[in-house]
Amino acid sequence: MKIIAYGIRKDEKPYVAKWQAEHPEVEVKIVEDLLLDETVNLAQGFDGVVAFQQAPYTDNVLATLAGYGIHYLSLRNVGVDNLNPVAVKANKIKVTNVPVYSPAAIAEFSVTQLLNLLRRTKEYFHKFERHDYRWAPEISHELNQQVVGVIGTGHIGRVAINIYKGFGAKVIAYDKFHNPELEAEGLYVDSLDELYAQATVITLHIPLFPETEHMLDQAAFAKMNDGVYIINASRGPLIDETALIEALDSGKVAGAALDVLEDETKVFNHDMAGKNMDYPEFWNLDSRENVLISPHTAFYTDVAVMNMVKQSFDANLELIQTGNSEKEVSFD
Ligand code: COI
User: Where are the domains of the chain?
Assistant: First the structure.
């Protein structure tokens, strides 16, 4: 049995080595390159592919894998929005993901960033750099006074809710699918409009689908409370960045923490030092004292990376051995 793993980073190598030591019957080849049109040929002769990247898996990559007789692709992350469902099905590729590698990694990061916004740490940091050590006028706000509207109550949203409750915030939630425990606690509101009307903080914990793209647009911002805070550590295209910029200009949005951006694949996880970056919305947002941008790092913890490697390799081996895996993603 032969598995090739693409896009392996230095920090993943010890976990791959551990998995390999536990599975001497499997031949594992690791490459640092991503799974792209230019590198897919490396997979020839392997039984399964493990991969992790934000760049799209092109239709040509999927067709080439199928042409090599490879029908098992295991992602080391959760999101599958960089795969074309039509091409996946046409090439009969079975795809697995790692749906629960560390909900706490993302939830804790989201809460951290909200606290940074409320306590205005970016502004104080800049003042401090200028040797201005005065308090005023950057008065802060307290998390225990907020009404936190959590959109999406899957694994990450639920951990976030528990943390927010620990801080004494009032939590309300919206999801198409209700979790029975949260239901019993009466946390759900019936509609997004209701959540927008009540929340002083809105945090997104939902996947990107065609129907969730730009869910926070001009119309949605108009329904929110003045001075709302927005947290997004899910997927960039959930927010219309032009509408967000307008809402920041008008004061409708008091602050935003964005771990993801609409067009992030061309900048995040690249060293852009000294390079031209044609991304006006990025520069606009980044220049603001009340906007925190981080390069999609919410997931990036030791626990998460360990689980991403182990569970993706396990799933790929399961596919090779049995043709099935409980982690198979449905593209229907
Ligand atoms: C995911 O697991 O889908 C993430 O958002 C991590 C990301 C860097 C691809």
Answer: 2-101+302-322, 103-293
Q: Which fold has domain 2-101+302-322?
A: Rossmann fold (3.40.50)
Residue 180: φ, ψ to 5°: -55, -40
Q: Could you write out the three-class secondary structure of 89-144?
A: HHCCCEEECCCCCCHHHHHHHHHHHHHHHHCCHHHHHHHHHCCCCCCCCCCCCCHH
**Domain pair 2-101+302-322 / 103-293, same fold:** yes
Nearest by Cα to 73 from 99, 104, 47, 112: 47
Assign domain 103-293 one CATH number from 3.40.50.300, 3.40.718.10, 3.40.640.10, 3.40.50.720.
3.40.50.720
Q: Is the CB of 54 under 6 A from ligand 1?
A: yes
Structure tokens given for 162: 């528990």
Q: What is the value of ipTM here, to two decimals?
A: 0.95
Could you tell me the distance, in angstroms and rounded to a whole number, from the CA of residue 79 to the centre of ligand 1?
Answer: 6
User: What is the whole-number distance in angstroms between the Cα of residue 6 and the centre of ligand 1?
Assistant: 15
For 216-273, how does the pLDDT look when each residue is reduced to its tens digit (9 = 90+)?
999 999 999 999 999 999 999 999 999 999 999 999 999 999 999 999 998 999 999 9
